[in-house]
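Field: COMPLEX_INPUT
Field: COMPONENT_COUNT = two
Field: RESIDUE_TOTAL = 533
Field: MODE = joint
Values follow.
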Amino acid sequence: MDRRSSVNTSVTHHTTHRRSKSYGRTFDATSRFCYTPGQLTITRIPTSREAAKAHKITEKVDPEQVALLVKNEWKLSYVTPLYQFRYTLLNVYAKHLSAFLVAEKQQGTAVEVGLETGFKVTFSTVLGMAETKDDAETVFIQIHSKPVFASAGDTPRVVWSGWLTCINGDPEYLQSLPPEFVSLPLFCTSGTESLTFLVKLWFERTFDCSFGSLSLDPNDLQWLAALWTGCHSDNNIRSLKLAWTLPAQPPLDVSLTVNGQDAWDLWEKVRPGDRADDSVSIEEVKCFITGIESHFFRHFKIHLSAGVLKKVSTALGSVHLDGKIKITCSDYMITVMTLLTECAILKMPTI
Amino acid sequence: MLKPFRKVPVLNTASLLLVENEEQLQTRLADIIVQNEKDVNITVRLARKLPLPEENQDSRPRIDLIVFIVNLRSERSLQSAEQSVKYLDPGFFLGKVCFVVTGARCLSGSSNRLLTARKLAASLHCPLLFAEDQTNEGVITVAVRLLGILKVAAGLVPLATGLYLNSLSHCMIPSDLEQNLD
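Field: COMPLEX_OUTPUT
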């Protein structure tokens, strides 16, 4: 029986081979080392990924919508599956959400749904982002509001936007969900904290889901650094900036900027020759990062591996350990989103 | 290269070597271990990494137990332990080496490291202990456990040898995890 994780098979799948001794049926959303009573669920974290290929996403998705996604820095959270979320009722949801927001702002007074209110909410689907047949379509939410001292003709400006998405989600997990549930595990928000909180509250009440903040792993940041560097040949990354925090007294912040071409040379040396398949394995990523760290050590005698990698940024995008991501080049959005969807599914608490 | 049986044991003494890259838990553990034991003479020696310096070779007593302390919050800690392990004579791994892991609670990035540490301990057939180093009670707990293992390894407990205890308590990776990870 093939026990190795068959990751570099097809373009859109990377299966995580799971072994579980469980009593009864579980859809064990994979967690890294999960010992729950009665079952031993151990999963294999993918050790190999597709190299980031330039997917011209604008072919499949409306370029205006892509522009909206690329503009902001998004704060990430994970969402458990939504119960009875219907794509046909998006307008109804929009009205309800705007009434809810207004009601929360003016606690105590009754608000009628549908009247002209201070907030205008739009729900829309971003068609074309789903990669596999199990992925649900991405939902994009925007909240517009008129500024306080606005004249009649002013257009409302966007004060908050967010999107729920699932790209290349784990097919075993998605297929194991009961049919009334829609799974959009990744929630990206940009806007004020209070509005984010209210939107999450509304979702939790309407669809019986729960949110949690998605803080990333240094491993994920390393993956992204390697994947973005690998794209240098197609799309100039200009420079690879890495930021570490070292546990000294007081804590030492180290920020290293590597020239794009040098980073790419190092990456090419790490990858053995010409590969028939486009997969990137975790050993190569670790080798790449170790190369950078040992170079730093040689010059400054500081072991960067004693610290925590906090932020990675290139011209193609930037990611922060607290769960903030910004994608500036839409070509590689699918790969980045795949990684983040996977993180979201892994982070979600299992039943 | 440290050899386990090069020196002659001394009556009623036991000697412990704590190897830790960060030097945080070592000193506290050493204090508690020495204070807790009144019947036996315990010597605790501290090191950051192996190999130990040559000049102390003669004055150093016979080491009964070597404990590698790995802090899972930093990658460097694990790397240093992996490199130090190479400087031990194979005779040590029959009950005279133990791994202590701290910081396993915080999952940020440490799950991979925990796995690596477990694989290291399992491949060397050594016990792996988890320690809570942030609280006093946690440090005392792990000190008491290490003291127990030390006394067995030094031969001070009748009818128990280091090898016997090792075969009961060495780190194992469950078979399905091993199959998945080969």
